[in-house]
Specification:
The complex is a heterodimer of chains A (283) and B (205). Helix content of chain A is 63%, strand content 2%. The radius of gyration of chain A is 22 Å and the shape is elongated. With 283 residues, chain A is an all-alpha fold. Chain A has 12 helices and 2 strands; from the N terminus they run H-H-H-H-H-H-H-H-H-H-H-H-E-E. Chain A has 2 domains: 28-101, no CATH class; 108-234, no CATH class. In chain A, helix 7 (146-162) packs parallel to helix 10 (190-199). Chain A has helices at 2-33, 44-56, 62-73, 78-101, 109-124, 129-141, 146-162, 167-179, 184-187, 190-199, 204-216, 221-232, and strands at 251-252, 279-282. Chain B folds into 2 domains: 2-79, no CATH class; 119-204, Immunoglobulins (Immunoglobulin-like), CATH 2.60.40. Chain B contains 6 helices and 7 strands. Chain B has helices at 2-17, 22-34, 36-42, 46-53, 68-79, 87-116, and strands at 119-127, 134-138, 158-166, 170-177, 181-183, 191-193, 199-204. In chain B, strands 2, 4, 5, 6 and 7 form a 5-stranded antiparallel sheet that branches. Chain B has a two-stranded antiparallel ribbon with strand order 1-3. In chain B, helix 1 packs across helix 2 (22-34) and helix 2 (22-34) packs across helix 3. Classes of the chains: A mainly alpha (283), B alpha+beta (205). Chains A and B meet through helix 1, helix 3, helix 4, helix 5 and helix 7 of A and helix 6, strand 1, strand 4, strand 5 and strand 6 of B. Strand 1 (251-252) of chain A pairs antiparallel with strand 5 of chain B.
Chain lengths: 283, 205
Amino acid sequence: MRHLRFAFALILALLAAPALFSESSDVRSWFRDEPRAHSYSAVEADVLRVFDDAGKAGLPLGPLMDKLQEGASKGAAANVLLTALRAESQRLSMGQAILDTQGVRFIDPGDREEALRAISLLVVDGVSAQTIESLLALAVSVGRDPLDDAEALRVLAQVKLSSRLADNDIQRLGAALLKSRLPRAAFNSIPPFLLKASALGMSDQAIEDIIVSVLGSGGSLIQMEEEIQKRKGLASPSSPPVRSGSPGGSAVGGSAGGASAGTSNRPAGGSPGAGPAGHRQQR
Amino acid sequence: MQECGRIESIVRVWEERGTLAPSDLEQITLHCADCHACSKLYSRVLPLLERDARGTRVADSDEPDAGFAERVMQRIGAKAPRKVFTPLSWAAAAAACLLLLAGIGAGVLVYSGGKHTDEVVVHFELDAPGAQSVALVGSFNGWDTSKLPMTDANRDGVWQITVHLKKNSINVYNFVIDGSRWVSDPKSPAQVDDGLGGLSSMLRL
């Protein structure tokens, strides 16, 4: 019996070991196999240290690998890429500290990674750690599921990146969302609603006021629509939402500049919940 | 063989009555010393025969005789078969482990399949008249500029592609024009600083 148990443990260890080390070895195999990696040989040791430290701290390495691939693909300078990786690692670390402090635990590591990605994006766009922490504390106090928290963070990240709302506005909106009776699946409707109202000419602040007041009074998404129509005296548009967004031709990456490209605004043919004008989604 | 038959009869009588005369025991012992078959056949009962020939049946007594425990322990030590792991048993153990792991793997697949196979079909368009090529590049394809080339089938300058992306995910992406010019999606409202000196677009599904 002892032999059998030993054999079982040995086989388990042999099979589990590669899985345990696969994440951190991804970056090493990237440096070994990726043709573009030679441009970053000067910072390889530093990059590996960022990954190793993140791994030891229990951070998901997916977002870091993602940033490494993005930087290399865009031809970023080695020191710029290293700085971006360190910054991403710091944001993930901060996000993890917030989740741990508030006792937000996810069963699926993928959900945790997505929550950390959302926190990172919020921080990139100027939302403070205190705001995120207070929102998660609120979510815990009202008994929201961790998956609700993750979805709220994703929605708020999209809202923040799509609007000119400030840190305190995001806090108000997030608090209203989490305290509302809206189920998680309905959180998804907030960004398209914001776009739609914005297309009607309302300011981000005015739209946020409507969302917060309707959610605060226990109202629904339909009531938000009605409130907007009442205030603006306009009917709901039949065309999909169009938002000017950033000026066309935003140039990114090393030598890129002055691109003349712009997305077409063809009818999405979907619900107002379809994505931004540059793409459309079908579920 | 005739002798063997006689010995068998004595043993049968002992089985029925539970008693054995010392002379019968002597005959059995002598016979077993010469007959290999009977020696093998009666080796297990011989100690019992010896015990009963001495008239000290355990069943009739509350206490075992003085040497009973010692004899039992001796016999256990002498006769207990040693567990030997043959190649077959190793193979069986390995097969059991693999089956167990396969079961766990299948469970994980079923669990993750139910949750993450949900995909969203997303159609991307970029108005880029005059471009020779346009590619969609993002976190969903490892930022590989060769994996998702867009097409302009009717040559109207509108480049398109439809992709399947994972539901409940945050995706960051760019368009790459003519292999070198990186642009964010101009009409996507969600733009994010990529930390590399440029902008990307964000799509939450």
